[in-house]
Structures are given as structure tokens and as C-alpha cells.
Write a structure and sequence with these properties.
- This protein is α+β, with helices and mostly antiparallel strands.
- The chain folds into three domains: 3-106, SH3 type barrels (Roll), CATH 2.30.30; 112-219, SH3 type barrels, CATH 2.30.30.240; 222-323, Histidine-containing Protein, Chain: A.
- Helices cover 22% and strands 26% of the residues.
- It is built from nine helices and 16 strands.
- The chain has a seven-stranded mixed beta sheet. A four-stranded antiparallel beta sheet has the order 3-2-1-6. The chain has a three-stranded mixed beta sheet with strand order 14-15-16.
- Helix 7 (246-260) packs antiparallel against helix 9 (290-304).
- It is elongated and about 70 Å long.
- 34% of the residues are buried.
Length: 323
């Protein structure tokens, strides 16, 4: 693969650019194919192309000049039609009102490395990587590295593409978040990536992502109903309620650092939400065991003081998402 054409607004891989022939990229020919024509074999790490050489040779070539101009939906439709793949931009006769619009298409290689800022022009980090489901053409998450800007070391954040948009120059991304709220959101170590699937949920949302289920994903797991209802209650603290005074920010940072230093804790435990407001600490999110809940409570109590911790952690069976 040479590159991916990504429509972040719709959370889609529009086309996959293949480089065929030549040596080391020299003298090769580029072709654009729908992501649905490809499948990834996790066992041997090979991408399979559902077309023969004859069909590929007769296919329209990809012109690199397309990167320099706004992508047109008719050009995308031509590629999908040629390979007999359903076009996510297509509209049925009974669903014209829900027709998606082709967004700002950019190279994946250009998006990776882009700075991410908030609307106050404060830098929050850089795009580290993209998580995509190749066969379905979905962009599952945008991975942001914020270590040097939020004092998180090598910690990474996973944000829904729906929460991001390009700036006016198309050389950076904007996220509606404060430094405090992003620092307080769930993170994971660069050496311990979680498993992602099409149901990527608010475990790594930080309070900013639009649920993938609003774009036609599977229904909510009944086991999460209580937690989700509580999260929607406007009387319940969210990461956006994190206090911005120096003492509250320091308390949250110290608790998160102490939790992350405990290597025996699970990924779930490392990614709980810690919210400090007016000196009171709220702990929220799933953990794997009662012991983890107790350990985190002890950490928070030791740092913030007794009678200042509201422990809302939930013990749940640890599940592994299929890639």
C-alpha cells in the first residue's frame, strides 16, 4: 500500500492507494481501490486484494494531482463501481435525507504527525497514528501523543475522528477540549495498546467523541446501561468538570501518575477518570477487580486526604475486544 485517502469528517477510509510494479517505489503505478476490496490477515500480517491482475491492469490509474484538489464524489463513485463495491456515499431511494457528504479528504501520511490544538490555540499534542478497520473502511480512532504538552510522558489518547476537524489551512487538527480535560481523560501506554474494534466506546473518549453507534454501529451493551445513564446525567461530574486551579490540577496529575506507576494494575484501571474539583476527587470507570478498586482508592486518599474521595469505580469482568 502506498497511502490511504482519509475522510475524517465521516470517519472513513475513502480509497486505498496501491503501488504496483517498479522497485522501491520507483517506476511503480498507482491505483485507487475501495477499502472493501481488501482484507487483512492478522495471522500472517498480509493484505489480500479481491481482484485479479487482469482487472487491476484495466483499472483507471490514480493521478497524484488528486491530492492537490478537493476530492469529488463522482471520482470516488467511479472507483467503487469499477470494483463492484458498495459506496458509502451512495444513497438509496428511501434514505435520501441521510446521504453523507464527502468531507475533506487527506493522505493518512499527512494526517499522521499533524499538530492538534484546541479552540484557544493551545497545542494538545500530535497525531501519532490512525486505527482503521480496513475491510469496512472505518477510521476507528485517531491516536494523539500529548506527552511533552500535558506532562504525560509516553501516554497516548484515542479520540474519535468525529471529535476532530481540520483547521482552515488543512495543516492541523482542532479538538474542542481544554488541556486539563484531555490530561484527565483515559490514556494508554505506547507499549501497551488496547484492542480496538468497531464498537470503540467511551472508555477512551475523554468526553469528546461522538458515539460510533450514532453512525449505525451495534446497539449498547445492556451491561453498561447503568454507567451510561449516569454519564448522561448533568449532575454527574465529567472530565470537563475538572477544576482549573493549580491545586486541583496538581492533585489530579499526582493521582494519575501514581496509578500509572503501578504496573500490576490492569489497562482498565490505568484508564479510569480522575476528576478533582474544589479539592474533592471523583474516581470513575471500570476496573477488573475489587482489589484494584481498593488500591486506587488508597492512592487517591493518600494524595488528596481522607474524606475527600468519591469512589465510583465499577468492578466488571475484563473483556478483550476482537481486532
Amino acid at each position: 500500500m502506498d497511502n490511504l485517502a482519509v475522510d475524517l469528517e465521516n470517519g472513513r477510509v475513502v480509497e486505498v492507494i496501491l503501488s504496483i510494479g517498479g522497485r522501491a517505489g520507483v517506476g511503480s503505478t498507482l491505483y485507487a481501490v475501495p477499502p472493501g476490496s481488501l482484507s487483512f490477515s492478522a495471522s500472517n500480517k498480509i493484505v489480500h486484494f479481491n481482484a485479479n491482475r487482469q482487472k487491476l491492469n484495466a483499472a483507471p490509474k490514480f493521478e497524484t494531482s488528486r491530492w492537490d484538489n478537493p476530492w469529488q464524489s463522482n471520482e470516488v463513485a467511479e472507483v467503487y463501481t469499477y470494483y463492484d463495491e458498495p459506496n458509502y456515499l451512495a444513497v438509496s431511494q428511501d434514505a435520501k435525507s441521510s446521504r453523507p457528504r464527502l468531507g475533506n479528504v487527506q493522505k493518512a501520511s499527512k494526517i499522521i504527525g499533524m499538530p492538534v490544538k484546541n479552540f484557544q490555540d493551545q497545542k494538545l499534542g500530535d497525531v501519532e497514528d490512525l486505527v482503521v478497520a480496513l475491510g469496512s473502511g472505518r477510521v476507528i480512532a485517531v491516536i494523539i501523543s500529548s506527552g511533552g504538552f500535558l506532562e504525560l510522558g509516553e501516554e497516548l489518547s484515542a479520540i474519535s475522528p468525529a471529535a476532530l476537524r481540520f483547521n482552515s489551512e488543512n495543516n492541523g487538527l482542532l479538538l474542542d477540549a481544554t488541556k486539563a480535560s484531555l490530561a484527565n481523560a483515559a490514556h494508554f501506554k505506547s507499549s501497551q495498546w488496547p484492542d480496538f474494534d468497531l464498537n470503540f466506546s467511551d472508555g477512551f473518549s475523554g468526553g469528546y467523541q461522538a458515539s460510533p453507534r450514532s453512525r449505525g454501529g451495534p446497539s449498547e451493551d445492556a451491561g453498561n446501561t447503568a454507567r451510561n445513564v449516569r454519564d448522561r446525567n448533568n449532575r454527574t461530574l465529567t472530565p470537563m468538570d475538572q477544576g482549573n486551579n493549580a491545586a486541583d490540577l496538581r492533585t489530579t496529575a499526582q493521582i494519575r501518575k501514581a496509578i500509572l506507576m503501578r504496573d500490576e494494575l490492569s489497562v482498565n484501571a490505568h484508564n479510569i477518570k480522575v476528576i478533582t474539583a474544589e479539592g474533592r476527587v471523583t474516581l470513575r470507570g471500570p476496573v477488573d477487580t475489587e482489589d484494584e478498586k481498593r488500591v486506587i482508592d488508597e492512592i487517591a486518599t493518600k494524595i488528596s486526604g481522607s474524606d475527600k474521595v468519591d469512589n465510583q469505580l465499577e468492578v466488571k469482568s475484563r473483556t478483550t475486544l476482537a481486532k
